[in-house]
Amino acid sequence: MKAIRRFTVRPVLPEPLRPLSDLARNLRWSWHAETRDLFRSVDPERWAASGGDPVRLLGSVPPARLAELAGDGPFLRRLAEVAGDLSAYTTGERWYQTQPEELPAAIAYFSPEFGITAALPQYSGGLGILAGDHLKAASDLGVPLIGVGLLYRHGYFRQTLSRDGWQQEHYPVLDPNELPVVQLEEPDGSPAQVSLALPGGKQLHARIWLAQVGRVPLLMLDSDVEENDLGERGVTDRLYGGGSEHRLLQEMLLGIGGVRAVRTYCRLTGHPAPEVFHTNEGHAGFLGLERIAELCADGLDFDSALESVRAGTVFTTHTPVPAGIDRFDRELVARHFGPDAELPRIDVDRILRLGMESYPGGEPNLFNMAVMGLRLAQRANGVSLLHGNVSREMFAGLWPGFDADEVPITSVTNGVHAPTWVAPEVFRLGAQQIGVQRAEDALTVGGSDRWDTVADIPDQDIFDLRRVLREQLVEEVRERLRASWRQRGAHTAELGWIDGVLDPDVLTIGFARRVPSYKRLTLMLRDRDRLMDLLLHPERPVQIVVAGKAHPADDGGKRLVQELVRFADDPRVRHRIVFLPDYGMAMAQKLYPGCDIWLNNPLRPLEACGTSGMKAALNGCLNLSVLDGWWDEWFQPDFGWAIPTADGAGTDPDHRDDIEAAALYDLLEQRVTPRFYERGQGGLPDRWIEMVRHTLSLLGPKVLAGRMVREYVERLYAPAALSHRSMGPDAARDLAEWKGRVRAAWPGVTVDHVETSASDALAELGTTLGLRVRVALGDLGPDDVDVQVVSGRVDEEDRIGDATVVPLKPVGAPDQDGRWVYEGPLSLDRTGPFGYTVRILPAHRLMASSAELGLVAGPSEELVAAAGLLMR
């Protein structure tokens, strides 16, 4: 019989065990080994059955066992020690508290998904795991972050396979009362809620759940409340599900409702109000509109409020793939805003203009969430150096007249939270060298360029560690493979072969990620005979563990999964290659440490960062990857291999895949497998061990989320907080008025005449020429603009590369025609073809970039033709 209603019955812990509840509700246990060990000792079998989830564990322990523990002196001493450690962690000074006082009092960090732990399945892939690692690292560093997301009742989805290898999706219902979250309550005990207005006079209500991530609160909005109609209750049903309107409502709730949730949380707890709002990808972009509405309600006009909001906003873009950006029909957006819906006091046209693709090549009827995110943020970044370059090209239309390298999008390369992803065995080996506390500090705060003490670890210890991790992975794979085949309909009697799957002494390659086409899950299958030869080589075999989920609506991705599964089902190779369904954090934490090689072969440059390879590297796994994302930035032959790419503009996609697959096979056959299997005089693979050592000592400090969050604080959060403080109501009004005046006057801004002291087009290196420029500023004055000379080497088409920018200074008053004269030096500091030009930009002390307005004036084509501007 099926129950008609379900309750969650919480255990009543004996008084001496009450600290267990606090430990279970703070997700620091997910990366703190001592806390997990304490819970494991409560009941090892139930701990394993609960999937390592303390909340589920405590709900299943019999009262007799709890009573026994309440009288167990050694256990209570351990409990007091671990609880005291958590208290010191959450209240004591950390890195942030030792920094200069001008840092922001608080930062709100918005993301559509957060991967904190498998016990809170609110993530689909890299974006969510990155957001979770960002929160954990912020907690370790003491950064006063408030996380904001949604609580999805079905999470993303659980993946199984049909008998013929087709992906099946399952959406188990998640009861918040069984998750490591608590409901935020008003002083009278009622649930804290936020509401959004919907068309037709309806309302969307959401309660606020709180997940405590160490020191960082994570607020999660849940629309499955009785006050909502059935349709509104389903807004937070599943991650990345539903049609356009469903997604729009999710993103309105995340952005607008999220700001309201932050205000509610700060009111109820006394937490400082955020000075900086960080928009993690465009999904949360509506947060800027709510903040504009708040300021308008306090008396500011829209333009002034926009300037105030921009000053304190950071926007991070994560995708170089246009299909990864949410775009909505303008009529759909318009229907959900304005007098009959949300933000009724703001003109709908002003809202639409923030997201419209009003630039060459854009679709003017689509509302682009990333475009809105960029227009609402004074500071923006990509997530690796290469991705920063790609993003500047991708969004260059928003800053017409500027070269892509001047588009105001910087980059902060992602990192990963080492305490979450480093295997306990790897941590213990490091702690033997430098002690537990120093090892913890190295993994969390970071700050050093290299971990030199890795050099002191004996080769035999590294070799033994790698084999232990590989052996653990083999056991994990067999267990998961057996469960998968049972789900596919196989009987136990058919599965004896699984006992021989994988070998702890064989070179092990891992490949696990989401399955969009550009990540090329099946590139390894391009030449199946050659792959089989690699898998079955009599002396140097390889084995491959593959995992990944295709989006439920992506049949092309599902076909790739099926193609891989069918190959892995072949009795000739199924002991050497496996596909594991339901890739998630629990699997990943075994997979990364157990592999010798982490394979990544996306279409370059479509991988924004690729943090899975970072997690593998922290465990001594070597990367074999296309030069994309972070690998393009940090690759060295000392710690991995680069797969050559054929990414010329005219290359046929099929031919490109053939070329790059062949390059992958060549590397495996000629360089990777010989290096793994060759033995030195002591019987160990000396050169392989040396590469593992270099990976740990040189890559380890770079890939830390602690390094990443410190960069965000120093390069983005701190400047944004200063801008926010400078942008009071009067300053915001002044800046908005100035921008309006500049835009109106800009058609009258021109470069009228340029002359130099050069007598001909030949000059010697080191010469300094005098430059004299006459400009028209229309209704503007010298205080409103910068006049610059831009110089450098030129190519065959006279484009300036690696430019040097030098400001010119006004000389005297305007002439009788109202023209101003500017003068300055032009240094010929490079040999070969050399060129320069002159330009005029708007200038204001409260702008973060001279490109902010997207306005630039330069010499006319006639003036360029007459000037002979090239020096050769």
Report on the structure:
The chain has about 850 residues and is of the alpha/beta class. It contains 29 helices and 29 strands. The termini are far apart. This is glycogen phosphorylase.
Write the layout of secondary structure elements.
Elements: H1 18-25, H2 33-42, H3 44-49, H4 54-60, H5 63-70, H6 73-91, E1 107-110, E2 114-115, E3 121-122, H7 126-141, E4 145-150, E5 158-161, E6 167-170, E7 182-183, E8 193-198, E9 202-213, E10 216-222, H8 230-233, H9 244-269, E11 276-280, H10 287-297, H11 302-311, E12 313-316, E13 327-329, H12 330-335, H13 348-355, E14 366-368, H14 369-375, E15 379-382, H15 385-394, E16 410-411, H16 418-421, H17 424-434, H18 436-444, H19 459-487, E17 507-512, H20 528-535, E18 542-547, H21 555-568, E19 577-580, H22 585-594, E20 597-600, H23 612-617, E21 622-626, H24 629-634, E22 640-643, H25 653-677, H26 686-699, H27 705-726, H28 729-745, E23 749-756, E24 768-777, E25 785-794, E26 800-810, E27 819-827, E28 834-842, H29 861-867, E29 870-871
Parallel strand pairs: 1-4, 1-11, 4-10, 11-12, 12-15, 15-16, 17-18, 17-20, 18-19, 20-21, 21-22
Antiparallel strand pairs: 2-3, 5-6, 7-9, 8-9, 9-10, 13-14, 23-24, 24-27, 25-26, 25-28, 26-27, 28-29
Sheet with most strands:
10 strands, mixed
The proportion of residues in beta strands is 15-25%
Q: What would the average pLDDT be, to the nearest integer?
A: 93
Helix content: 25-40%
**Count of helical segments?**
29
Low-confidence stretches: 868-872
**Overall radius of gyration:** 29 Å
- The helix-and-strand class reads alpha/beta
The first-to-last residue Cα distance is 89 Å
Number of E-type strands? 29
Give the overall silhouette: globular
